Amino acid sequence: MISRFFIDRPIFANVIAIVTLLFGIVALYKLPVERYPSITPPTVQVTTNYPGANAKVVADTVAAPIEQQINGVENMMYMSSTSSSDGSYSLTITFEIGTNLEEAQVLVQNRVAIAEPQLPEEVRRQGVSVKKQSSNIIMAISLTSPPPKSAFDLTLDPAGLADRGVTADEALAAVRAAGGAGGVTVEPHADAKPGFYRVTTPDGFAPDGPAGADKLRAVVVKKGPDGKSAVPLADVARVDPLPGAFDGLFLSNYATLKLRDELSRVAGVGDIMVRGVGSYAMRIWLDPDKLAARDITTQEVTAALARQNVQVAAGQVGQPPNPSGQRFQLTVNTLGRLSDAEQFRQVIVKSGGGGQPVYLRDVAEVELGAQSYDGFSSRSGFAAANLLVYQLPNSNALDVAARVRAAMEKVKPSLPPGVEYSIPFDTTKFVDSAIHEVYVTLGEAGVLVLIVILIFLQSWRALFVPATTVPITIIGAFAFMPFLGFSINLLTLFGLILAIGIVVDDAIVIVENASHHIEQGLAPREATIKAMDEVTGPVISITLVLMAVFIPTAFLSGITGEMYRQFALTIAATALISAVNALTLKPAQCAVWLKPVAKKNVFTRVFDAAYRPVERVYAWSVRQLLKVWPVVLLVFVGVAGVTGWLYQKTPTGFLPVEDQGYIIIAAQLPDAASLDRTNELVDKINTAFRNTPGVENWFVLGGFSLLDGTAAPNAATAFIAWKDWKERTTPELQQEVLVKRVEAELGGMREAFTLVLVPPSIQGLGFAGGFQMQIEDREGVGLDALQERTQAIMMEVMARQQAAGGPPSSVLYARTLFRAGVPQVYLNIDREKAEKMGVKMNDVFATLQTNLGSVYVNDFNKFGRTYQVRVQADARFRADPSVIKRLEVPGREDAVGYDGKAVPRPRVPLGTLLSNEVQVGPQSIIRYNLYPTAQLQGQAAEGASSGDALKEMEEIADRALPTTMGYEWSGISFQEKRVSGEAVLVYGLAVFLVYLVLAAQYESWLLPFAVILVVPLGLLGVVGAVQIRGFDNNIYTQIGIVLIIALASKNAILIVEFARELRLAGRSIHGAAAEAARMRFRPIIMTSFAFILGVAPLVFATGAGAASRQALGTAVFGGMITATVLAVFFVPAFYVAIQWLIELKNGPPKPRPGEVIHVHTEVESGHAAPAPAPVATAPVTAAEPPPEPTAPPAVAPDPKGG
Predict the structure, then answer these.
(1) Same domain, residue pair 693 and 758
(2) Are residues 939 and 798 in the same domain?
(3) Strands (E) located in 345-473
(4) Does some domain include residue 1079?
(5) Are 944 and 832 found together in one domain?
(6) pLDDT of residue 1175
(7) Contact between 270 and 134 (Cβ < 8 Å)
(8) Of 278, 474, 517, 795, which residue is the least packed, with the fewest Cβ within 10 Å?
(9) Would you give the DSSP letter of residue 61?
């Protein structure tokens, strides 16, 4: 046999092990490290812009034709688009996992090209972009110019002073005293403005400017008469930190000019989005009153800029062909395209008639400003430019983040003085910490497994044999990963942790059996040969069963298929290496290392004294149960029924919610709220987070909604980064508590609606965890009806939460940012009157767009870049709808005077041609799979699973929605619903393949059932442990169930295999079953408890990624306990029942001539045998029950079990 070959050639066996280790070590250093493999669906993004169009126009003229063509593109799962009131359009197409992204991009590009002729001319001029895009923001880089820490502006409020009965001197005196011994300096401001002061605080007063301002605002300037009530400085004065050296506009453009291109070249970076004030533009702020006084229209201004700001190619003097003898050839240069504000101020807008020319400076203010003022950005309260780093699909986030950090360190010395960069948001920190925690768990599991083995084997020499198995199989498994396309991620590492308790099983069985034979007087070599004769079959059987359970999962598709694949094939690889190791190196080691124990030490004697009664009571119990094996089967049926009932009652989920180190806040003010009001809200948010324990950093994007990707003046999005997990070990700093604290803080801000969102379990499946439900208008009933039905669903959710006496709601909240009724101004133009007055409609539209919306005229060059020239009315002429009527448009062109000569075109006020009224309409329109949709973002209630929440939302939607509407799931909810039925298929396939492997090995269709029937016993422990801890049946639980199917079958195989051999050797069915159970009790208990303690670190995991480790650990921990404790009693009964059925049909098995099976046993009467005796084959008779003992056997010395 193969084992004898390696017993005689131990160096050969060691070489195989060393080569396995070397290959694994080489692969270990080359494999990429990431949280999950590439399990997010690939996406392609289509973007364009329709300047001046509102959301409905964009949806009708841009979204509809593009999406009609793209719909149904190969491998598409779903698509979602956003049409905004700023004219922007964005469409994201999500494809099946495994789709070639390059091909998908080409297919989408081809279909967009078909749709382009149907798009408006202006959209075609702007261009339609198609690019592969990851929605995964892996990090944010903030550029800030922090204000001075110790200087502030203080402005006294006379009304506040009077209301509170505080004098200016009292307030200033209180401020001066606030610095303690150092004192606070208060001096009148240099501007000499009454009530305006410059405050300087001492060193150490506050860590930064905003914190210092908060501390000053809290200074008590006057105490109440009761000595308790107090008047803070904030009630009587305004305190502001001084601005930094650079404003947000500079920071945003510095980020664009100096950093964006640099970072975009980093390998793996898909896109760099700069969020701040905006790009530079030459802003021409018109004064309509001055234009009217000089009889100038806005069209004349834009025409003058178009004429005088042009790129000139003047040519050359002496350029060939030229007269012979030309001596010089000179390039002609002149000022064409303007480059600075002063040059633009000198543009002549109007001249002629002998009067002075009118310059642009006479009718407008000119400055180098921002192209758009629709948003702002801050970091921890400071004005900032935030660079959002998106990774390319299929790139490694850890590698990308490391390269980005290196690139930033490279440019750091070149940052202007007073500018700092920081990384307030980095999702890879979680991945790093989670991987580190798993490595720690891997080490802990290995140590615990070896401790259990040492306790049972009671020999350092014996411990060495299974101990060497762990590094060989675990490290060797890395050698398989490159060929399987795997990386080092949480799933493969989880597989290795659980494999520790599996791979030592074969070695334990071998060393335990060999040790027993050595104790019986055989030499180590002969004992090892005899042991291998007995256990080679079970070792191969167990390996085949493990492979049969895990390998088929490699053929599953989708996210769950990839997760199963990574986990299962990793364990399969370790099982294969373990089997090879058990048949080559372990026999060689046993023959060399195992020695007879001359004298047992105190620990050994104590352990034996404690273990022997357990084994004897177990053996007696099994014999009693076998006498009533039909009753045992009935009990099993009841246990299986309870298991099925508990499984059905266990809530379902997709993946556990992790503390990933950050949360997201979506804030929305009332409809039509201005950006200034949003800025005020952000100031309050900054103050709240500055004083919130556990918060490390945060940054805010004002005027931007991350959930639907739209720019909206009444929206803001904040990313809050917690402190490191090691600094948040106390209960009050756990994410659940911190989220509730943040919700309480935001709940006090009544001016806005806020949502606190945890990130999704898998990055790239949406921007937030929880569920995403799309309520669709499928029959064109209108956005108002869509909003009404969406609100009805939300109200039903709230009603269920508040209902008393009924079952608790599974939904914590369901909210939407969709608004169909945003106030808008509608201008009703009297076109007939305009025609009579000679006013052209295009002049009306151009005047409105130029003054209210800004118009893009042409470009100018600065800093080596090209920027836009934009014309717009000054802010005070856009503050109220009434100003529209003051705007003027040119009238009839052919007007003549009394003398018959042409006169200048008259100016017609728009107030004579139009009236305005308030209407409502959508600020943005989202379409999902062609239908206008309202997205509901929600969260499962505490104690409820995501599966329960989805089911309840479906029930509510089915009742609330008419037949003209429907719903679909998106993001992580789409994946959860999609895989909801796959678990049963996986379980069934695993069990069926185990059955087929055993049927082939035993050459019996019935005997494998003695092994298969143990599966419900393991499943009982899984569902029981999951329910006790309040977890749900998620993917990690399902992976644990698959593992338990294999491990429960493994234990059963040890008993059934030996019972089968004993039966063939002539023992009765009952005797064979009872003896096999007792013989294998010790190795089963040893291997099972080694595995159970090996996964204990998973069960009680803390830190980053703890939720996933706990979910998997709890499932396999509970399942292995019941698969061991119950199976050792039930499996002998299963064998008796199945073997009885087999022999009832086929008769007793034929004996194997000359076969001798070593039996270390108690005789069937229950008394200890004085010595083990070989059992020679003899004629096999029908099963005979052993005589029933009158009482459990007394404790007596007994040789060590084998």
Answers:
(1) yes
(2) yes
(3) 348-350, 358-359, 364-370, 376-379, 382-391, 420-426
(4) yes
(5) no
(6) 43
(7) yes
(8) 795
(9) I
Whether 1099 and 1053 share a structural domain: yes
Range of the domain at 914: 281-314+335-368+822-893+904-921
**Beta bridge pairs of residue 754:** 667
β-pairing, 280-286 vs 865-873, is: parallel
Across the chain, which distance is largest between two alpha carbons, in Å?
143
CATH, residue 210: 3.30.2090
Tens digit of each residue's pLDDT (9 = 90 or more) over 109-160 = 999 999 999 998 878 877 899 988 776 788 899 998 887 778 888 888 888 8
Q: Looking at 769, 803, 831, which one is the last position of a domain?
A: 769
| All residues at 6 or more sequence positions from 333 whose CB lies less than 8 Å from its CB, including other chains | 314
Segments in the chain below pLDDT 70 = 1, 135, 180-182, 191-192, 224-228, 352-355, 394, 597-601, 804-807, 893-905, 1151-1202
Q: What is the DSSP string of 117-185?
A: GGS-HHHHHH--EEEE----EEEEEEEE-PPPSSEEEEEE-HHHHHHHT--HHHHHHHHHGGGTTS--E
Within its chain, how far is the Cα of 793 from the centroid? 27
Q: Into how many domains does the chain fold?
A: 6
- Pull the structure tokens for residue 679: 């800025």
Residue pLDDT, tens place only, 1010-1020: 999 999 999 99
How confident is the model at residue 352, as a pLDDT? 64
List the structure tokens of 901: 């000569």
Enumerate the β-bridge partners of residue 700.
Answer: 378, 718
What is the pLDDT at residue 896?
A: 58
- Do both 673 and 646 map to the same domain? no
Same structural domain, 634 and 751: no
Same domain, 729 and 784: no
d(CA 770, CA 939): 4
What pTM was computed for the model? 0.80
Domain CATH code at residue 343: 3.30.2090.10
Which long-range contacts does 564-567 make (Cβ < 8 Å, 24+ apart)? 564/986, 564/1039, 564/1042, 566/37, 566/486, 566/489, 566/491, 566/492, 566/495, 567/491, 567/492, 567/494, 567/495, 567/1039
**679 exposure class (CB count in 10 Å sphere: 0-12, 13-18, 19+):** middle
Beta strands 280-286 and 316-317: pairing type?
A: unpaired
Matching residue, tokens 């983040």: 401
Read off the pLDDT of residues 1156-1169 as tens digits, 9 standing for 90 and up. Answer: 444 444 333 333 33
Same domain assignment for residues 933 and 1011: no
Type of residue at 478: F
pLDDT, position 177: 85
Closest CA to 856 of 843, 869, 872, 844: 869
**Strand, coil or helix: what is 716?**
strand
Domain of 126, CATH number, reads 3.30.70.1430
Omega cis (within 30) before 1189: no
Residues 6+ apart with CB under 8 A from 770: 757, 758, 937, 938, 939, 940, 946, 949
The residue among 241, 272, 294 that closes a domain is 241
**3-state class (DSSP) for residue 386:** strand
d(CA 398, CA 32): 9
Domain-embedded: residue 622: yes
**DSSP code per residue over 521-565:** T--HHHHHHHHHHHHHHHHHHHHHHHHHHHGGGGG--HHHHHHHH
Structure tokens at 336: 């064409």
Closest CA to 299 of 1162, 1045, 887: 887
Give the domain CATH number at 805.
3.30.70.1440
Structure confidence at residue 1168 (pLDDT): 36
What does the pLDDT read at residue 747?
A: 82
Q: Which residue has the tokens 């379990």?
A: 761
Q: Scanning the structure block, which residue is given the tokens 């409502």?
A: 920
494-510 pLDDT per residue, tens: 888 888 877 887 888 88
- Residue 1108: closest CA among 1013, 1035, 1185, 1199: 1035
So what's the pLDDT on residue 247?
85
Tell whether 376 is covered by a domain.
Answer: no
